Amino acid sequence: MGYEALDFYDVDSLLTDEERMIRDAVRDWVDESVIPKIENACREGVFLDEWRQELGGMGILGAPLKGYGCPGLSYTAYGVICRELERGDSGIRSFASVQGSLAMYPIWDFGSEEQKEKYLPKMASGELIGCFGLTEPDYGSNPGDMVTKAEEDDDHYILNGAKMWITNGTIADLAVVWAKLDGVIRGFIVEKGDEGFSAPEMKGKHSLKASVTSELVFQDCKIPKDRILPGVKGLRGPFSCLNNARFGISWGAVGAAQSCFDSARSYAMSRIQFDHPIAAYQLVQNKLAWMLREITKAQLLAYHLGVKKDSGEWVPEHISLAKMNNVDIALEIARVARDIHGANGILDEYPVMRHMANLESVKTYEGTHDIHNLILGRHITGIQAFTREA
Amino acid sequence: MKVAVLIKQVPDTTARISISGGLVDEGSISKWTISPYDEYALEAALKLQSESGAKVVAITLGPQRSSKSLIDAAAVGADELMHVLYEGDTGSLSLQSALAAAVRKSEADIVLAGKQAADTNSGSTAPGVAQMLGLPCVGLVSEVKVVDGNFVATRSTSSGMERVSVNGPCVFAFDKGDEELRRPNVRGIMMAKKKPIESLSPADLGVSMEDGGVNVESVGYPPEKPAGQTFQGAASASEVVTKLREEANVI
Amino acid sequence: MSVTIVSEPHEEGMHPTLPQLVRAASIIGGSCTVIIPGGNGADEASKIQGVEKVIKLNGACFSVFDSSTWSAAISGLVDGTVLMATTPIGRELSASIAAGLGRSVVQDVTSIAPGLKLERPSYSGKAVESISVSGDAVITIRPNAIESAESGGSADVSTVDSGENLKIAILEAIAKAGERLDVSEADIIISGGRGLGDQSNFEKLESVADSLGAAVGASRAVVDEWGLPHSMQVGQTGKTVTPSLYIAVGISGAIQHLAGMRSSRYILAINKDPEAPIFGVADYGIVAQWEDALPILHEAIKSLP
Predict the structure, then answer these.
(1) How far apart are CA B176 and CA B114, in angstroms?
(2) Which of A239, B23, B140, C184 sits at 20 to 30 Å (Cα–Cα) from B214?
(3) Cα(A174)–Cα(C155) distance, integer angstroms
(4) A366 belongs to the catalytic site
């Protein structure tokens, strides 16, 4: 039984021919290279290096970026890629999100010409892995109060502080790190091997097990002056990266939900209880119909957001809505799918519990569910409710 | 050197086949692909391209939708694309004539094709086209190389494999090979959309698609299998073997 | 109506499909000539009831299979409908003969009725085509789909020499590699599960597999427990397979295993527990200890004609 992507309203017919060909290429890759290996990778807690090479070989890293060896695709195509990758596993999509939207994008948008030439072609090909350091142990939803700082020292900057929950950290060749220089948030490129820089892996996750999560530690980390991103100051830098990553997540969540639906439907059709497939019972049909309903809505949300992103007529709140909604329903669909699978649902024979555990992270990272609600609340009322202070 | 690859667009082998009114309902087919053995032929052609500098021309015959298979071939590296556009059903003879004419027009030196298509499961096209072109045919091939100006192919036989040599133009019909099929990358996909497709009607090639004699009256579902039969005791195994041969016809 | 059968060369005398082709010819009606490229088994062929004439087609070219050369040698001798068996050689040669004669070809016919009403599977057995043929066509018939004609004939045997030259040269023969077929490619799979009791018992499945040209598969339970290669695993997290025949030995049929093999065309299950879920999907179920049933199964397979 091959994977059948639920597309009740034939939303993919709105894609261009090239976008559909890219979808098929990524979907086939996931079938051949992710699905047969993902459970073992999760068990061992590793991101397979062959995935890095093959993602680079397909030419999909940094999908919407143009020039410097980058693919130059539409944001919609980027979304489709994220959806197909996350159908395999959120960890694979996370790798691509971080590489493209969080590490390549800031260099592409805010970097110097020399920085772009030096890093982007090799990052697009997968030769170099990037990560993104914003969140700190004590500053998650509130990154503006970060304590990591940079100081000028002759022809160098000295970084001190620590970042946490950094996808790709330990395997990265370079990190885009946000730190305060004279009280202003700036972006810096830190390379593996820089003096005073280490990236120990965080172990013991019950979620995103096939993705590497790390701390980034800077102890008088010395980097040359030409590693600062000249093009941006303040939170606008990291937030513009996050907008792109969250856009990809809103599509990716649809992929995880489609995978759970596919598994639940086929399980319900073949599992016999009380002499009939459980799919013949009303309670199960109700669950499947609800999943179909929510996935179809989420698909339309993601697609239209892609159209807006490609036309440039979007505001960050549009992305917040899609990220929040689509991850939320995907997580609930994963839970309901697990329920339909009964006890079998907890086994790694089926993808549902893995997606469920992954999506718990996805709900929290890149702006928690609640923070996106507050972003929308502020948009509706004009009153910010993030802090107790005015 | 120019290599023609004959490719056919077929329903994905995992797709459900619905039949209504004595015909396969094409509208219900969710995914069309290049027939799997043709993909091995294409892969072999692309190897000749990279190893011997061959130009690869992908040729298909079929309705409008089948141009997608040419674009897929271009996405992995086919240099030229030729579509013999024909919406109707084809008999083996007219199909082979039209493909042979297309190969002549392409001025290809050798022809690679799959050993059989995943829809008709016939396996007549490659040897038929060879006959019409007056060329030899080598079937069940897993690899073709150019060695000292000859084509050397590995083909499977009832007792194993053999390497055979042909010293001129030839048609090779591909079985599943050991080669891993290349996957299209984004650059290939973006280039493919710019590649022109030479679209020809059978009449352009001087071929009539009329061929009498064989008429597919209807297509139906295979007969329902009888209900499962249970046999008690080990001794029944020999009876079951007889049934596997005579009832099920699978051994 | 005339029928010409082209009987594929066979090392040990007549090709085993020839009596079936003769039977098919008698269904069509009319006189039946058998051409044997290379001439092996002509005497045997002449004794099949319904054969009127046997032509031993001799020539140096028949040492190597070369369809275009063979069809050039054969085409001039055929008269009326041409029948061959659906074997790799039959498919290629029949298509070549048909194209050379300007005729249509119908491959892999599984049923033949008077008036040339044919049936053949398409879409890998997911559909069946009903075909009518008028005029002379070239037809291949699936081995064992039609009963054999009886013996008891006494046809004339004549010899024709062909001077056709080969266009294909054999450089080397490569013996069949020892490695086993992969389950995702095999047309027949024999799989074992926990009921086998011990990993060493897989050897017994392998020897049956050798007789059938089958691949050997396994359930997840034994892949995990006995450390068998994951490539053998059939099921939800292993391979999904759709062979013509799937033989499950000592496999109870957990839903995860069924997910990977229930679309097989025919399923034979051997299990000692009559309540095992595998019997729910089996076309043929043998309720027995596998240790007792497998040797009998194997012997019966080996003694198939």
Answers:
(1) 9
(2) B140
(3) 84
(4) yes
